[in-house]
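If you are new to this repository, start here. Below is one unmodified record pulled from the training split, so you can see the exact layout before writing a loader.
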Amino acid sequence: MARVTAIIPAGGSGTRLGTRTPKQFLRLRGVPMLALTVRHFATHPRVAAVVVAAPAREIERARAMLRPLGRRVPVRVVAGGATRQESVWLALQAAPADTELAIVHDA
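And here is the target side for that same chain:
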C-alpha cells in the first residue's frame, strides 16, 4: 500500500467571505473547519501523514488546535505562501521523505 500524505492548503485570509476571522478557523457545529478537515484525513486508514499550510501569522494557533489530532499520524503545520499553488508547494516540501502519493484537499 502506498504511503499517502494529505496536503491541506489553508493559507487564505477569508477576505472573500467578509469575516475578520480566516474561514478555516470559523466554527461549524462548534469545531473549527480546519480541524474538521484534518480530522477526516488524520483518522483515515490509508493516510500516513498530514501537512497543513496555514497563514504565517496563524501557525501557532493552527498547531495548538491540530495537536490533539496528531495521535495516529503526524500532523505538521507550515507557513503557507502568497497563492494556493505556493502553499501546496511548501506543504509538499514538508511531507515525509517516504511519501509515495500526495493528495491535496483545500481547507
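Two things worth knowing about this chain: The radius of gyration is 13 Å. The first strand starts at residue 4 and ends at 9.
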